[in-house]
Amino acid sequence: MNIKLILTGLYISFSLALNAQFNIKSVSISQDKMNILYVGVDNPLSISVIGINTNDIEVSVSGVEGAKISGENAKYIVRATQQTEKNQFCYVNVKNYKTGQNYGSFPFRVKRIPNPKANLNGNTDATLTASELKSQTAVELNFEDFDYDVKCKILEYTVWFTEPGKAAISFVNSGENFNAKTKELIGKAVSGAQYRFSNIKCNCPGDTTPRTVNSIFIEIITRSNK
Fold first, then answer.
1. pTM of the model
2. For a 10 Å CB count at each end of the chain, is N or C smaller?
3. Are the C-beta atoms of 24 and 15 separated by less than 8 Å?
4. pLDDT of 148-175, one tens digit each?
């Protein structure tokens, strides 16, 4: 039996084929998003066996505690609750539920969702005018090059404010929206003032403990009208 692993673009396809004279079918499993599975989200798979009715296919997962698969008609969803370790895989097992014939077990790695990027309206390290900063209301989280619809929740972050000629002050802002203290200090924005949003803690799907993401640094400037 030969196992061929084909990586194409943003999906991974596994084919298991034997000589047609033995009447053993080919299995195709396509990961509909990426070539790995992620903890805490729906991971869509397309599974088919050449020459076999999709209703006759039985799928299961093994190798990782807490992993589950559901679906029908060639479309399935894998949910995983923990990452795979080195040399460990989450196996998607395919067989014919009528005859019991096994078509193969196909390995996937399971990873944690990557860190989102904290920003203020897309800005992470930037120079803004006072009015540009005052138009912001919250720290945001966005993903770059991650093809899943995922929402992470900001728990808290530390706001540092340095007014020209004065010592920096700091305090903790709970949640993503600016609290009264943050709004008060942003209201004091003048050219030369600096703001730093650091120790930004958030929870993403599948997280058991908060994660800390990148800091944001903003310096206030006066833009020329030229």
1. 0.79
2. C
3. no
4. 889 999 999 999 999 999 999 999 999 9
